[in-house]
From TrEMBL:
This is 4-hydroxy-tetrahydrodipicolinate synthase. The keyword Amino-acid biosynthesis applies. Its main location: cytoplasm. Keywords: Amino-acid biosynthesis, Cytoplasm, Diaminopimelate biosynthesis, Lyase, Lysine biosynthesis, Schiff base. The gene is dapA. It is found in: Cytoplasm. The lineage of its organism: Bacteria, Pseudomonadati, Spirochaetota, Spirochaetia, Leptospirales. GO terms for molecular function: 4-hydroxy-tetrahydrodipicolinate synthase activity. The record marks 43, 106 as: Part of a proton relay during catalysis. GO terms for biological process: diaminopimelate biosynthetic process; lysine biosynthetic process via diaminopimelate. It comes from Leptospira ellisii. SMART domains: DHDPS (SM01130). Belongs to the DapA family.
Length: 294
């Protein structure tokens, strides 16, 4: 089952194509930092604007590049169950360690519809499935009682929880904690979720600070709670500012500022607005780097 730090990795672009030179350097940075895995083709990777061929190619290239040094959990979600199954089967053939399947968006299925959707995907997957609950993006909330039913499906072994509701997360862990792992889908709730039984995070911030997010999680797991709290509080402003505009706009801007990739982002997303808030974001990031965080 998945636990630790998984980076929801960005997709760098150049001239409207995937910039693999930059991407492979980003993967090497993640490997050297000791993350447990990367998640290509997620929201942070701008999956909604990747063509089907780009989606398949990016997953294949990620598996090839990491060479088994870290796990690859590929985003294969869709609001079409048929399409999600097709993406999942293709990713499995390409050698991923797991797949991330998000709530169907826009069509707003019932809890029974969610159950049937994820069950159908898991039954066609040859690798473990991480469910992804993010009502703010999908307009549907995968409730703990539904997850409990899904935990009986063989391949469903983990959940990325991004409701922002610690009460719901606690109920979820109380129901499925012995059958599934639960990871935070929000960087700012990594430490609180660990405190109530979560086991890690699918992180946006770890694109830029992978070693730090690994330290945060491992410090807590090793009983060094003071160290974990210090990191949490030092990063509390960044956790908020990284979502001042729709993800991945801010993190992609930050990655460009520090020389990791170009600033290209695909419509309908646009580059980070230049205003006092974005200036504060850069100032805070500079301060953290000066303190030795990486």
């Amino acid at each position: 089952m998945f636990q630790g730090v998984y980076t929801a990795i960005i997709t760098p672009f150049k001239n409207d194509s995937i910039d693999y030179d930059s991407y492979f350097k980003l993967l090497e940075k993640q490997i050297k930092a000791g993350v447990d895995g990367v998640v290509p083709c997620g929201t942070t990777g701008e999956s909604p604007t990747l063509s089907h061929s780009e989606h398949a190619e990016l997953i294949r290239e990620t598996v090839r590049a990491v060479q088994g040094k870290i796990q690859v959990v590929a985003g294969t979600g869709s609001n079409s169950t048929k399409e999600a199954i097709e993406l999942t089967e293709a990713a499995c053939k390409d050698g991923v360690n797991g797949i991330l399947s998000v709530n169907p968006y826009y069509n707003k299925p019932t809890q029974e519809g969610l159950f049937q959707h994820f069950k159908a995907i898991a039954e066609r997957s040859s690798v473990p499935v991480m469910l992804y609950n993010i009502p703010g993006r999908t307009s549907v909330n995968l409730l703990p009682e539904t997850v409990l039913r899904l935990s009986e499906v063989q391949q469903i072994r983990s959940m990325k929880e991004a409701t922002g509701d610690l009460g719901q997360m606690a109920k979820l862990i109380s129901l499925v904690g012995d059958k599934m792992t639960v990871l935070s889908g929000d960087d700012n709730l990594t430490l609180p979720l660990l405190a109530i039984g979560g086991v890690g995070v699918v992180s946006v911030i770890s694109n830029l600070f992978p070693k730090t997010m690994v330290r945060l999680v491992r410090s807590f797991q090793e009983g060094k709670t003071s160290e974990a709290r210090k990191i949490h509080y030092d990063f509390i402003d960044v956790f908020a500012l990284a979502f001042m505009e729709t993800n991945p706009i801010p993190i992609k801007a930050a990655m460009h500022w520090f020389g990791h990739c170009g600033q290209e982002i695909r419509l309908p997303l646009t580059r980070l607005s230049q205003n006092p808030t974005s200036e504060k974001f850069r100032t805070v990031l500079d301060s953290l780097r000066q303190k030795g965080y990486e």
